[in-house]
Amino acid sequence: MKIIKKPSNIKKIIDNEKAEGKTIGFIPTMGNLHRGHISLVEKSIRECDYTIVSIFINPLQFSENEDFANYPVTTKEDIEKLSDAGVDLLFLPNTNTMSKYPFKEVKASSLTNALCGVSRPGHFKGVTTIVSKLFDITNPDYAFFGEKDYQQLLIIREMTKDLNLPIKIISGEIIREEIGLAMSSRNSYLSYKQRINASLIFKYMKQAKSRIEEGGEKIDSIYQLKKKLMFIPNADVDYVQFFDEKNLKKITKATEYGRIFIAVYIGKTRLIDNIRVRLK
Ligand code: AMP
Question: What does pTM read for this prediction?
Answer without folding.
Answer: 0.97
